[in-house]
Structures are given as C-alpha cells and as structure tokens.
Design a protein that fits this description.
Structural class: alpha+beta
Helix content: 25-40%
Largest sheet: 5 strands, antiparallel
CATH class of the largest domain: Alpha Beta
Number of strands: 14
Strand content: 5-15%
Number of helices: 20
Oligomer: single chain
Distance between the termini: 37 Å
Length: about 550
Amino acid sequence: MDGDQDEMAGPGVLAVPELEWEQARLRAGVIGRLAEHVPVGLAAVDEAAVELGISRRRVYVLLERYRQGSGLVTDLVPRRSDGGKGGGRLAEPVEQIIRELVRQRYLTRQKRSIASLHREITRACAVQGLPAPARNTVAARIARMNPVEVGRRREGAESVRPLQSAGDEVPVVESILDQVQIDHTVIDLIVVDDRDRQPIGRPYLTVAIDVCSRCLVGMVVTLEPPSAVSVGLCLAHAAGDKRPWLERLGIDAAWPMSGKPKALYVDNAREFKSEALTRGCDQHGISLDYRPLGRPHYGGTVERVIGTAMQQIHELPGTTFSNPVERGAYDAEKMAALTMAELERWLVLAVATYHGTVHSTLGQTPAGRWADGVAATGTPVLTANPTAFLVDFLPVFRRKLTRTGFVIDHVHYFANALKPWIARREALERFLIRRDPRDISRIWVLDPEGTVYIEVPYRTMSNPTVSVWEHRQALARLRERGATEVDEAGLFRMIEQMRTIAETAQKTTKRTRRERQRRAQAGTANTRPTPPVPELPVVPADSEAAGRSVARFGEIEQW
C-alpha cells in the first residue's frame, strides 16, 4: 500500500470487550448456519431465537447484518445503545467494572461464585460513586458468555478438550480445509548469505497441511525462531492466492491448494496461544483447537510431513543431518551452498512434485484428492486482501496518541490521517496498534470506532527500513555505551554505524552475515526480487559425501 493515509478495512477484533466478543462468537455460529440457506424457514428462525435467547425479529436483524457485512464475527458485535426500551441501561463505567471483575475474579481457577463476584462489583461501584447493578444483571452477563471459554478459564483446558473420541482414535476429517495442522521445525541445513555465499546458520520452517487431502496449503521459511508471527505468515500464505508469490520466485509450478481453514489444529506451544492468534482465528471463523496432552498421534500428519522433508533435506549440500552420529566428519558449513531464496525454491518444487505423487494412504495423489474436495464442497474461500488478513495476526501494542503521532520503542510514527484524532486526543482511549517485526517502518492503527486500520509510516521518512531484531541490537549497543536516554536520531545513527561496520569488515563473521540477511528479508517483507534460477547443487565427492546425491523430487516420500 502506498501513501501515508492508506486505510485498511478490517474490524478491530482486540478492541471488542471480552464479554461482547463471546456473545458475538455465539451469534456468529448460529446466524452463520442460517445464512447458508435461501430462503430461511420460519422454523429455523424460531430455533435460532430459542438458542440465542432473543426474539424472532432480532434474529432477522442479525441475519441481515451478517449478510450485508463480511461474514465475520465482528459483524455481530453488540452495538452501543443509549438506553430506551429494549436497550442497555447501565452506564459505560459500570459496564467496564463488570467486565474487568468478571475477567479478574470470576474467570479464574479460584472459581468464585456469582454472589461473591456481585459483592465485589457493588463495592467497586460504591468507591467510584456509581449505581451498582443487580445480581441478576451480572448473572445475565455471565450466562451470555461462551461456556467452553468459561470452563477453560475456571476448570482448565482438559475439561473442555474438543477433540476427544472413543477408543482414543483421532477423529476422521472428510472434507478439505476442515482441519489444517501447523507446526515448526529448525531445518537440518546451513544456508549461505546472498552476497558472499558464506554460512549464516540454520533457518526455520513452518508448514500447514490439509489433513483430508494431505496437501501442503502453507509454508514459511525464516531466519527467526518460531513465533506468533510465523503462524500468522503461514496462515496468510495458506489463505491467499499463491500465483503472485510463485511468479516472484520465478517458478513455473502449480500450487492451487489455498483457502481459509475451518479449523486450525496445533500443539500447546506458547506461540499458538497468543491473544492476536486467538482473536484473529475467531474473527475469520477459524476454530483453534489444541492437541490433547499426552496424545502425540493427534498431530501425526504434520509431523510426518516435517520428518519426510528433513530426510530429503539431508541430501542437500550443507546438511547438518539429524544427529552428530549420522553427520560424522561431514563439514556442513564448508559444504553449505544454498541461499534462503534457493532453499525456498527447492522446497516449492519438492512440494509440487509431492502433490502429484500417489499417496499410499489415500490411494491417489494429494492433488487429486484436493480436486475431488473442491468438486464436492466448492472453491475454497480465499482472502481478498492478504495484507489485511495478516494484520489480524500481528503483535499488538496499545498507545496514547500524542500531538506528534505515536511513539513505539523510541520511534515516531505520523500520517495526515491522524490529524482529526489528534485534535481530540485527550478524550480518546489508548489506540490498538499492530506492527510487523520484520519491518517496523510502518504500523497499522485501529481507528477509535474499531472498524478500519490506518497505515502509519515513520514520521521521519528518511529513516531506513529495519527489523525489530536490528532495532533491539542498536538499543542494546547504546545502553552498553552508557546512554541513559535514547532518542530516535541517536538510535538510527547507531543502526547506520552497525551496518557500515558489517559492510566494510575485512572478515565477516557468520553472525554479521546472518544479520545482513535479516535486513534483506525485512526490506522485502511484501515483495521479493526474483533470484537467478540456480542449478541443482551437487554434493562434492569426499570421504563422507561420496556416493550421495541431491534429493530427486520424484523420490519424495509419502507426507
């Protein structure tokens, strides 16, 4: 997106209070099913009204709002009311007290009673000189919450595990995108930098696989350890059209397997439990399910993909193998030959070949099973705006607006679109802001109404594009030199000095080369220049590598 006033339509999923979000989720599940039918029968409407505890007329209102919107949870978030017949009569400060104390006192393992919660709410209201709500009002707020979420907070995750089945068998997945498994691994390969082709270490791979067809629907290769951003990037890759990306890589290969998953199945790692990922999945109608503890076979599909991929990687020059015994005297750094871009291109070709190979479990090719799924259920839903989709999964900050814009980690951001808000900034709450760690030269700010993201660049446009990792290194260097206060100008001077040292050093260390490659990736977070097509690397014959050959795409095992 260009310009300093670009807007990105996208509701602010983190700006919605928790109780209202849970109510909207419940509504979306019921109303979404109704919206699939045209026309909607009266019996179905009445059934939905009973399930939601609302009137028939209200069901029709919500159905119309859902159809006119984007089919997202935020289309059904309760709208503010000034009171009146049928409206909410509690003042917003009272509602805020209820929301906060429900979260802090009721949704905990201490399992406080509603009576105890109501007493605390009454005391908090008295301290602020506000009228206390009735106990029935508090109970009604809790009753509208998602019972699964309440059970998870009060009883523990095991009490509400959605994936339990008789005989401890993994549930069968019958349609494409009904379940997508996602996981990470460090790749058993040392890559080289783009300029000097010197070793920079091992990258990480994040993959998403459709369980029904065994097709890979998403893939991300990065130098950064697994994080919530890795998950968001992989989801965005899975949900969007891959053709522009393949063109940038310069690869003539088919990879039509794309679409928003209905359910995302992951392990219990921290990056899969972030607020941004949880709300992002809710917003886009993706069920987020966690692997039951002690049942590793529940995630076996994606782990087999990763295991087989690593076996093929062991045939490439620069492999570290899986363990020191297997590696022997093989010098992985000396033999390293592939850049990040070349490794990514190799993986794409491997995936394309795998999709066209008959799978022993399926009895047909993954591509054929995917085509059957499309014929049975229709073309999967793709994201119309991949950037907007990704933003919903980026790390979150909350900041007050100042006269000169926003300040995050000593860096100032400003756009003309902020001027109307600056004029009334004292009356506004903290803004919700998203930032891509790969490129902090811009942020996305949610407007006060919680409906549109505004892209806001550096206030000083001449500052270079940097990643959050390079920014942190410069900040640490300044503090090592005794800087008690850090300003933006000094911070970017340090970044430029560090870059100059890295570029002019006579002997470049592996760490410096890795940082330079990180900067190159940060500068191409949205687009990447097409690298020259490399020939398949050949392992030099030596005492350890003699007889070994590069993995042939036709020999890829069953993922």
